[in-house]
Recover the amino acids of this structure.
């Protein structure tokens, strides 16, 4: 059986914590920010963790970790 390949696009966007959770950057911070409220932009800063359902999907794309 051949080795499993990692989806490189996915690997660039997600990272694992020591406990096994998956971190990701929040969306909607790229452009067109002038019409969004300061509160909304502030809450989109930083990283977030995936839900359990999404985590299974992403783990399949990252077999090697």
């Amino acid at each position: 059986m051949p080795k499993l390949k990692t989806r490189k696009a996915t690997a660039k966007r997600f990272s694992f914590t020591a406990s096994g959770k998956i971190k990701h950057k929040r969306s909607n911070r790229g452009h067109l920010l002038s019409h969004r409220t300061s509160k909304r932009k502030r809450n989109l800063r930083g990283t977030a963790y995936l839900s359990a359902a999404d985590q299974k999907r992403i783990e399949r794309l990252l077999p090697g970790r």
About this structure: The chain is about 35% helix and 15% strand. The mean pLDDT is 94.
